[in-house]
């Protein structure tokens, strides 16, 4: 997906209502300037679909370290989903050299304190005024640094955001520093632990005196995350359940996808106060196609009213040929990207028949070697353009069942077989 950047809008005069000029394009990425208070010099990128819903919702999509607003636009499905459902997407973009959001400074961790949260709120205010959006349907999601910022924004602006979805983040306040450093190693390594009440107090202290409703939170984390380690997931659950006055016992537990465990707190449906999904054996780069649809279901931005969407066939196709002998076999696998967005980094999940054990492979790293297996892309074949394919394969022992594997998923989204 190409990115179109248009610079526009001088800073509005004090008290003036900013207007979207006729030249602002729809269905393309647009940079907006002069959007309001912006103490840390963030950039604002905006995606407005051709058919905006009446009183549209706003989704803020926050990028990872080294990323950008345009990268978040091209690497996620939120713009395509906006085309379908009529909401507006804001993509904040860091200009400091690290390309990481400030989730550590005292200024960032208190309401109106300055730094990045103020600039992001200004973006939301600009969109709300310009497009007459629904103030009760403002949402935020982010990956890594953006996930940490999602936690921060829900803490400092609980009256602005109705819900958040954090992919591989840490609790509000966990990354706090006082020496100007953007990095907190203790938190990143998962060694900062607190009671639920102590975590909750950090959130409540960001906006003293606030007594209104608190945003719902959806949390995602891979069990093998080696950047923001997995214990942070449990600490986030402690924090947001406490903020909502809930205990640590889930109201429901299920596995919507093989290798995923989903717990819901405070309710059993799609819009529970807190929903947490862990991905077994998955590292820091956990975001994959199909996950954005689940975020929208949690936010209530899709048109469905039933259970959360299961991964739908159509984004990928897998064909397998096998060659078996007495107690061994080889399997050659071709994965085709049938979607419209490029896949950057992939994990192919599948299930081996009982009695099969992988003894070697090519084109991917395989783990575990039996049962529910994940094949992780190599550096040379990590990108799959739309309509392009990659080939991989493995050798395995078997105890009589030499059938091909089944149940293929690509980055969590179910694939069509054959």
Question: What topology emerges from the helices and strands here?
Answer:
Elements: E1 29-32, E2 43-47, E3 58-62, H1 69-75, H2 78-85, E4 88-93, H3 116-131, E5 138-143, H4 145-156, E6 163-167, H5 185-188, H6 196-206, E7 216-222, H7 231-243, E8 252-254, E9 260-265, E10 274-279, H8 291-299, E11 316-325, E12 328-337, E13 343-344, E14 347-351, E15 357-362, E16 364-367, E17 372-377, E18 383-384, E19 389-397, E20 406-410, E21 413-414, E22 416-417
Parallel strand pairs: 3-4, 3-5, 5-6, 6-7, 7-10, 11-22
Antiparallel strand pairs: 1-2, 2-4, 8-9, 9-10, 11-12, 12-19, 13-18, 14-17, 14-20, 15-19, 16-17, 20-21
Helix pairs in contact: 4-6, 6-7
Describe this structure in words.
With 418 residues, the chain is α/β, with parallel strands linked by helices. The protein has eight helices and 22 strands. Strand 5 (138-143), helix 4 (145-156) and strand 6 (163-167) form a beta-alpha-beta unit.
Provide keyphrases for this structure.
ten-stranded mixed beta sheet
In short:
It is built from eight helices and 22 strands.
Low-confidence stretches: 1-23, 304-314
Q: How would you state the average pLDDT, rounded?
A: 89
Number of beta strands:
22
Question: Going across the major beta sheet, what is the strand order?
Answer: 1-2-4-3-5-6-7-10-9-8
How large is the radius of gyration?
22 Å
Please report the distance between the alpha carbons of the first and last residues.
Answer: 27 Å
Sketch the major β-sheet: 10 strands, mixed
Shape: globular
């Amino acid at each position: 997906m190409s990115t179109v950047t248009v610079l526009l809008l001088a800073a509005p005069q004090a008290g003036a209502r900013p207007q979207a000029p006729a030249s602002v394009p729809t269905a393309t990425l647009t940079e907006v300037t002069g959007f309001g208070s912006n103490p840390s010099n963030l950039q604002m990128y905006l995606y407005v679909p051709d058919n905006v819903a009446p009183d549209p919702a706003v989704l803020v999509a926050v990028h990872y370290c080294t990323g950008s607003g345009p990268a978040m636009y091209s690497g996620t499905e939120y713009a395509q989903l906006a085309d379908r459902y009529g909401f507006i997407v804001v993509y904040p973009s860091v200009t400091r050299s690290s390309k990481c959001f400030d989730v550590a400074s005292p200024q960032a961790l208190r309401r109106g304190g300055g730094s990045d949260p103020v600039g992001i709120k200004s973006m939301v205010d600009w969109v709300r005024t310009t497009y007459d959006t629904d103030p009760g349907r403002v949402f935020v999601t982010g990956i890594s640094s953006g996930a940490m910022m999602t936690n921060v924004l829900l803490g400092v602006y609980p009256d602005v955001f109705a819900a958040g979805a954090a992919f591989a983040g840490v609790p509000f306040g966990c990354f706090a520093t006082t020496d100007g450093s953007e990095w907190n190693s203790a938190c990143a390594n998962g060694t900062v632990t607190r009671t639920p009440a102590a975590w909750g107090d950090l959130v409540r202290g960001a906006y003293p005196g606030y007594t209104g409703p608190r945003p719902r939170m959806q949390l995602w984390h891979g069990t093998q995350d080696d950047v923001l380690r997995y214990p942070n997931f449990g600490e986030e659950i402690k924090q947001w359940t406490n903020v909502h006055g809930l205990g640590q016992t889930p109201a429901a537990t299920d596995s919507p996808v093989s290798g995923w465990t989903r717990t819901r707190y405070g309710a059993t449906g799609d819009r529970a106060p807190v929903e947490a999904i862990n991905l077994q054996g998955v590292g820091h780069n956990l975001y994959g196609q199909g996950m954005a649809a689940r975020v929208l279901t949690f936010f209530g931005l899709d048109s469905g009213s039933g259970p959360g969407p299961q991964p739908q066939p159509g984004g990928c196709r897998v064909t397998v040929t096998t060659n078996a002998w007495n107690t061994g076999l080889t399997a050659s696998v071709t994965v085709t990207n049938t979607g419209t967005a490029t896949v950057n980094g992939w994990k192919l999940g599948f299930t081996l028949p009982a009695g099969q054990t992988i003894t070697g492979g090519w084109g991917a790293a395989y783990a575990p070697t039996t049962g529910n297996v994940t094949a992780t892309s190599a550096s040379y074949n990590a990108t799959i353009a739309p309509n392009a394919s990659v080939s991989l394969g493995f050798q395995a022992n078997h105890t009589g069942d030499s059938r091909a594997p089944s149940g293929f998923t690509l980055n969590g989204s179910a694939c069509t077989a054959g």
